[in-house]
Structures are given as structure tokens and as C-alpha cells.
Amino acid sequence: MKKESRGFTLIEIVVACAVSVLFLSSFLVLFRAMAKAHNNILAKDIGVLSAQNTMESLKSIPFASLESSSGIVVSDLSPDLKTIKITSGKIELYSIRSKY
């Protein structure tokens, strides 16, 4: 009489667990990379929004009142063209030319 085999053997279960662990670990690596990319994009978006807000607020101020000790320099290129340079120490953060 032959014995009927039912269920899985221990070796089959161990192999299935190992394959599952490898498969799930690849998702973990992918998830970490996506989270890091998301954080980088979020930081860049915050920087861009901050710069846009600063430039919008500077656009509403007359050129004559922009020069101060805050690192904002206004220079005349011609009678109708001016340049605004925003600096922090020796680093130029932003430069814009305007016909106002």
C-alpha cells in the first residue's frame, strides 16, 4: 500500500519563504528610492515657491527703495533697463533685469 502525500514538505516551504523574502526586499529598495526622490522634489518645490514669493514681493517695491544693507543691489544699465541682484555674502542668489 502506498502512502498518499498531502501538503508541502519542509524544503518546499523554506524555498517559498526565501523567494518571497527576495521579492519583498526588492519592493523595499524601490520604496526607499521613491521616498528619497519624493523628498528631493518636495524640497525643490518649497525652494522654488519661496523664491517666487520673494520675487513677487520685490516686484511690488519701487527700484529706488530696494537698495539697503540687506544684500539687494539695484544698478542702472541704461535709462530704461535696470538690474536687481540679490546676494548673500559673496554668493549671488538671484539676478533679474527689468524695463521698469
How much helicity do the residues have?
A: 40-55%
Name the average pLDDT.
77
Measured between the Cα atoms of the first and last residue, the distance is 101 Å
Shape: rod-shaped
- How many separate domains? 2
Amount of beta strand: 15-25%
Segments where pLDDT lies below 50 for 5+ residues? none
Structural class: alpha+beta
Order of helices and strands: HEEE
Counting H and I runs of at least 4 residues, what is the number of helices?
1
Quantity of strands, as a count = 3
Strand order of the largest sheet: 1-2-3
How many whole angstroms does the radius of gyration measure?
31 Å
Give a short account of the largest sheet: 3 strands, antiparallel
Q: Would you write up a description of this structure?
A:
- It is a single chain.
- The protein is 50% helix and 23% strand.
- The chain is α+β, with helices and mostly antiparallel strands and 100 residues long.
- The protein folds into two domains: 9-60; 63-100, no CATH class.
- A hairpin with a 2-residue loop joins strand 1 and strand 2.
- It starts with 9 loop residues before the first helix and ends with a strand.
Write the layout of secondary structure elements.
Layout: H1 10-59, E1 72-78, E2 81-88, E3 91-98
